[in-house]
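Anyone? Bumping this.
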Amino acid sequence: MDRVYNFSAGPSMLPLEVLEKAQKELLNYNGCGSSVLEMSHRSKPFEAIVNNAEATLRRIMHIPDEYAVLFLQGGASLQFSMVPMNLTAQGATTAYAVTGQFAKKAWEEGARWGNAVAVTNGKIDNFAAIPAVTPELIPQDAAYLHITGNNTVYGTAYNTLPDTGSVPLVADWSSAILGKVIDVKKHALIYAGAQKNMGPAGLTVVILRKELLERTLDPIVPTMLQYAIHADKGSMYNTPPCFSIYMAGLVFEWVEKNGGVEAMEQRNAARAAALYKALESCDHFRPLAAKKDRSIMNVTFTLDTPEMTAEFLAMAQGRGLTSLKGYRTVGGCRASLYNGMPDEGVAALIDCICAFEIGKRT
Amino acid sequence: MDRVYNFSAGPSMLPLEVLEKAQKELLNYNGCGSSVLEMSHRSKPFEAIVNNAEATLRRIMHIPDEYAVLFLQGGASLQFSMVPMNLTAQGATTAYAVTGQFAKKAWEEGARWGNAVAVTNGKIDNFAAIPAVTPELIPQDAAYLHITGNNTVYGTAYNTLPDTGSVPLVADWSSAILGKVIDVKKHALIYAGAQKNMGPAGLTVVILRKELLERTLDPIVPTMLQYAIHADKGSMYNTPPCFSIYMAGLVFEWVEKNGGVEAMEQRNAARAAALYKALESCDHFRPLAAKKDRSIMNVTFTLDTPEMTAEFLAMAQGRGLTSLKGYRTVGGCRASLYNGMPDEGVAALIDCICAFEIGKRT
């Protein structure tokens, strides 16, 4: 089988050009005699790889100098704990906007460490919309408000950042980072797993205000969970996930070459709009997310019945459109349109939707 | 430059055959239409990859059914914290044999959580030997004795396991796993970073007695640091480091095809012996580790003066023998002879040592 259009919510498609470059230099990187898979993280070539990756990311995200950039392991799931452990004392108050599956997990982990208050909880609408957050809802003594910028499972997103008043904003941008413009300056801390828009799984990017590194931490916090240690050691306190950093660096360069995050957002917004329009023009398809809160990265929809959904998924699979099944607790379908998805993939999905709809009408 | 012989302590050389296979299927794994770098960890092909990797590892290490095998992130450094958090209550007594740099770090992290007692401390000899551990040295109420099986920095190893009496043995085998036979049954828990004998960086393997998963943990322990969660979810609680698991699986198969860990040990012991013999037969070279405690994975040595060491390192570099510089706190040289190092690389190093020695004699 040729390469398929993989609509997985992550890990997800990487640009073919990036994969081809990685393939070409897999046995011998840049003539240095070793693969990136086997070179010491203390070697000159790897030092250049990690420095370039950080510099490119800083350019494409316009990250100000007063923010540190860390390349870590453990995914967003480990950040759920690192954020409270690094930003607060045990028992301190923190605030969480619970807008989905992963937002809820972040809140629950926050509650292991402190007094984590859920300021909104979208569960009543089955997370189909993003409840408004206003400064009045946030406890004034909260160390931060945590949001999940884009909810992969439900296909919703903060299309404008909430007004947190004087409370610092912490955001999990795993499924939208590099896919749309994020104003770093409005955040105290941003984190994201790489496996959607940035590269393969196994790498987590954390961007945080340097002043947050100066806190004295509870001695119980493991060294590996301390941002300040990783910042001080340039993400090399221990052996980093070298190959994932290298791949992410190639993706960062690809984004820059293709017009930067601004161009990515424009392209992603246009094709998500085309897909939503196709779904809305059909009788048998229905988008799941509230219109104002729709994500441009993950488009969730359903058909009339679970049987019809299964029929559609089988048809799509037959056309090389894979991983379109919705999250297990939601059902229906989900099309993740990350940067690595070619335009042809989105067009093929829209074709498939139209063909299915026409088949049902006749 | 052609591929070099890279003697790095890790990440380190992978078998060329493994790299070539990975290169061949990098754009399209097994005809499924996606790269392993971009496929969903919930997909059928990846499920097969992770199941095969575990099954092969169980065969080559003869891991009994009553042990769980976990594929995690964070390296040995995160295990330093996960071990005490999962095996003891806060404040409980644990025992550590401090035989080197990483053993010391494990002890220090243990002390963040509990009463971590150093039962031996090799620092007085600059860690050149492994002090004997006897049951009398270990506090009877210790939840475990932690050892670092192979000390990468100092080139020492436990060539026989210590007698711990009734205290469970926990071992960091990062730099010898698959390089020599480890009797799993004698351990309560084994952990190892992948980046020496198993694959690229970004993967940590944990092997532990299943009964250890039944403890009720302190609620402060982050979900991501709980062995039981990862065991229950088949190492898929969150997105695992997919590509590193795939590469490790290829390495496990390569080990099996080449006679298993028993054959690896035989080969590694023979070539380490040849290297030690060459060093001992020279006037200007001197092995650093005490003879009885020498590692067959990391051979540490020095020359008469730092200048002579630098001269030798430059000569080796010119012959395509790289990353031979000793750890920064030790100096001298270190040759790591992991499974991925071809015999020709060890022969070339011995040749280089002899040529340097002869050059100095004439």
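Late reply, but here is one note on the structure posted above: Chain A touches chain B through 72 residues (CB under 8 Å).
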